[in-house]
Amino acid sequence: MSTKLMIRFFACTLILMTLSMKNSFAQSTTIPEQNAQNRRETAKGNSDVRKTTAIAGQANREGTKGTNSETRKATYDENKGERADAAADGQVSKDEAKTLVDQNSKERLDNAKTNSANRQQTGATNSAARKGAAQQNSGTRRATGVENAANRRTKVN
Fold it and tell me: Is residue 71 part of a domain?
């Protein structure tokens, strides 16, 4: 082999090695940046899902609270009216007063059961929303992990 040919061969080899290293360095800075971007996007998506879930939960609680409050107020007003009517008659016997108290107690118990059922329904709705958000977040994290792993494998090769 002639000297000129050997010099050209080594020059070409050196150029190829330099280009290969340059490409490798370019990838090593790009992949961590891509992984960081993936993490930021995942975090933003998770944050949006949590906000939406929290807003829905708050709306459910407010709706239930309003219904329960209206029910209690209506029962209180009704019982107050019955007591006022009975007092105006001036003819309330002990038995009638006891009957009114028992009836009011029963109504309060029924209202408490209704309120409890409303709270359970709200809790179930909020729980389902949280579970859905958790599943969505888990899927997003899994996808990001797979993409980051693929990026790392690309960097090694």
Answer: yes
For the stretch 15-47, pLDDT in tens is 777 777 665 655 555 777 888 888 888 888 888
Q: What tokens appear for 96 in the block? A: 């009638």
Chain CA centroid to CA 68, Å? 25
Residues 6+ apart with CB under 8 A from 83: 100
Read off the pTM. Answer: 0.37
Asked whether residue 153 is assigned to any structural domain, the reply reads no
DSSP for residue 93: -
- How crowded is the C-beta side of 104, counted as CA atoms within 13 Å? 18
Gap between the Cα atoms of 19 and 72, Å rounded: 79
Q: What are the distances in angstroms from CA 24 to CA 17, 57, 100?
A: 10, 49, 87
Range of the domain at 18: 3-138
156 has pLDDT over 60: no
